[in-house]
Amino acid sequence: MSGDNHCGEVSIAGGAYHETCSWPVWNAVFGSGWRAVRVFRALSPATNITFCSVGNQQLQQRMKVYAASEPLEPNIIKVDDMLYFDYTHPMSRPIITGLNKNRHAVEANGKYVIGFGMLEASVKLTGEYVVYDPQSPTHPLSFKEQGGAAHHLALVMNETEAKMLSDEQDLLKIRDRLFEREGCECLVIKRGAKGASVFHSKDDAGSVIPAYKTEQVWPIGSGDVFTTVFAYYWFNGYTPVESAMKASKAAAIYCESAGSYEELPQKMQKSYVELNPHKKGNVYLAGPFFTLSEKLFVAECRHLLSAMGVEVFSPYHDVGEGKAEEVAPKDIEALNACDCVFAIIDGLDSGTLFEIGYAVAKGKKVVAYVENETDGALKMLKGTGCDIQSDFTTAIYKTCWYASE
After folding, report:
1. pLDDT tens, position by position, 193-210
2. Could you give phi then psi for residue 239, rounded to 5 degrees?
3. Going from the N-terminus, what domains does the chain have, and what CATH number goes with each?
4. Across the beta sheet with 26-30, what order do the strands follow?
């Protein structure tokens, strides 16, 4: 019956990695597999969890500590080195160290099984109810081709992984190919601000699951949370659509809680505003570019905004460092055309402040990213409705949300 917790035992397979981030500072051992264990434990404290992974002696000792105080059975293939994922900021591509050429074979089985793709191992999952997330931005592996077998299989993945696994670009063609190749019972494709699409069969047009706005955004591990919470509710009799709705809400809670999962059960009733993007959106990127560090940062902002699916006008990239009488009209034209302004405030560059004032006068939404300026220096920005953010990732996300609405 839906709502009853009948997951007395669950097997979880996936990576356990050391994650670090420079800004904001983050230093923790998680990875998809171990994060899934902790999230599932928060939802179901009494469930006996078998955790299948690869790790060094330090990880094995960590597992022993947890197993001494909770129903946890570690099944860790011992290796010499632990993988490190080092992020400059939460949206950056991590530098991965500790990966060698040796590929291992991780297996998990049982009535209820959750599995994530791993860099250092194949993942073979066998069970009655299995949820598989390929979890790879470059080379996602097929459930079936790794030897997986399930009476009831749910595939959960992001849109990039779905395109690579299916060799298709159109959403419905992706659906057809994955149902055919993998033999799944349901397919969940996460689509960023567009939410997620849930399919029950090759003939299903799909149900749209909303994503939610949050005051803060911490994206590292949010996909792991989505998959784990989906699995928990699906294992307990909820429909795939109901489970995905719960998963999307849980991902929002996690993002807003700066990577915390402990209070997920208590916060699941919290309401959030749904994201409803209906256009691609156009962002004007305002900021100084007089030094190498400023130019590098402007380029990073441009790259991240573009990767989030909006059109970006950058005066540095799209106009250049010409004469004032040549540059200013083109910048004004782009300000008139934009939906939202992302402004880099530190340094209080006069050109950037002018662009903000012009945008505000035109009724444009402005997201002002600032780390070091005083409240007094920001008084006019606050008083005219600019969204002032000191967290870089949140500033990028909010800019894209405003631009796409």
Report:
1. 999 999 999 999 999 999
2. -70, 160
3. 9-267 (3.40.1190.20), 282-404 (3.40.50.450)
4. 26-30, 17-21, 84-87, 95-97
How far is 208 from 224, CA to CA, in rounded Å?
20
What is the residue whose two structure tokens read 């077998």?
A: 149
- Alpha helices (H) in 13-155, listed in sequence order: 31-43, 57-67
Amino acid in the structure at residue 273:
V
3-state class (DSSP) for residue 370: coil
Distance CA 282, CA 86 (A): 31
Q: What is the CA radius of gyration of the chain?
A: 23
Write the CA distances from 394 to 99, 265, 288, 310, 354, integer angstroms: 31, 24, 20, 16, 24
Angle subtended by helix axes 159-166 and 171-182, to nearest 10: 60
Contact of 404 with 216, CB cutoff 8 Å:
no
pLDDT tens column, 149-165: 999 999 999 999 999 99
* DSSP annotation of 46: T
pLDDT above 90 as % of the chain: 96
Task: Spell out a b/e string for 355-391, using b for 16 or more CB atoms within 10 Å of the CB, else e.
Answer: bbebbbeeebbbbbbbeebeeeebeebeeeebbbbeb
Strand-by-strand arrangement of the 121-133 sheet: 72-78, 48-55, 9-13, 104-116, 121-133, 149-158, 186-190, 196-199, 207-209
pTM of the predicted model over 0.85: yes
- Give the angle subtended at the CA of 136 by the CAs of 157 and 193, to the nearest 5°: 45
The tokens describing 344, both together, are 């880099």
| Paired tokens of 242 | 């109901």
Evaluate whether 130 touches 152 at the Cβ level (below 8 Å).
yes
**Euclidean distance between CA atoms 269 and 317, whole angstroms:** 45
Question: What value does the mean pLDDT of the chain take?
Answer: 96
